[in-house]
Amino acid sequence: MEKLARKVSIIGCGKVGMRYAYSMVIKGLARELCMVDYYNEIAEGEAMDLADGGPFLSSVDVYSGDYADIAGSELVIITAGAGRKPGQSRIDLVKGNAEIIKSIVPQIIKYAPSAIILVVSNPVDILSYVTYKISGKPSNEIIGSGTLLDTARLINLLKKLFDVNLRSIYAPVFGEHGDTAFPAWSKATIGGVPLEDAFEAFNGKDMNYKEEIDRIFREVKDRGKEIIKRKGETSYGIGLSMTRISKAILKNEKSALSVSTYLEDYHGVGDVYLSVPAIVGKRGIEKVLKVRFNEEEMNAFKHSAQSVKQVIKEIGF
Q1: 32 and 166 assigned to the same domain
Q2: Quick one: pLDDT at residue 59?
């Protein structure tokens, strides 16, 4: 059994960072949890509040600090970044958050040079690329949270359609965590049976397969907007998806997860971060799995890559 990693650090103690911290404490996945935020008092208050639950949980040392306190971390999570403001363009948001990343990453490299870095700040694929470029670290040690949350949302909606256990469904979402994300329906399965083959058995001939899967993925893409419209932000789902990635790293699971990873020659696509199934373990990305897309999926994948690369070019990377 792999020895449990001792220390995880979080850069950014907003709602996403704190949902993650709470989940990590509940699951007891680290022995130390160091929290760093631009606003020191916020990090201090959050750490105090979370540490008060210590007697009810497994032993986790929760504390706040500055960058020097992340020394010895095996995993560093970056959630810091601004949200999109009314009237702000996507490019302006990217530029602003890229500047934040540029101020954070050198500090991580200085104090925790051997840590795996998990980027969650949005737009995550672009900021993962920026992190990789300025860190000087091997690409396998920089991971973006990517479309793992999109995949979870898709599985949840398919569960309603098929009325089966979540663990019976395989339906990864590929590409950018954003407008150009897409499902590879040709690879989706229910209990190992191709999705289209299973559809008629569960839903009969009166329901149109193509119309249903298109409707479901529209709901997946709109899910974040619908949550934000109702409560102003999304944080629980992403916090739990971050915990899932962290568990794979800290316990060296070598699990296949849809995360944003650096691609070098993936069906001719390279020098970009996009989500594809990858084996995640203690070294970060242990292996990238190449999926055989059909023609429609291949076109969607290349379109997603072009979209992300265009923004990277526009911000000077």
Answers
A1: no
A2: 80
Domain count, the chain: 2
pLDDT of 204 higher than 70? no
For residues 111-122, average pLDDT:
97
Shared-domain flag, residues 234 and 199 = yes
Q: Which domain holds residue 23?
A: 7-144
Q: Are residues 104 and 178 in the same domain?
A: no
- Cα distances from 265 to residues 262, 268, 285, 312, in angstroms, run 10, 5, 15, 18
Looking at the domain assignment, is residue 93 inside a domain? yes
Is the pLDDT reported for residue 84 higher than 70?
no
Q: Which residues have a catalytic role annotated? A: 177
Give per-residue pLDDT as tens, 251-270.
999 999 999 999 999 999 99
109, 212: one domain: no
CATH number, domain of 31, equals 3.40.50.720
**129 lies in the same domain as 153:** no
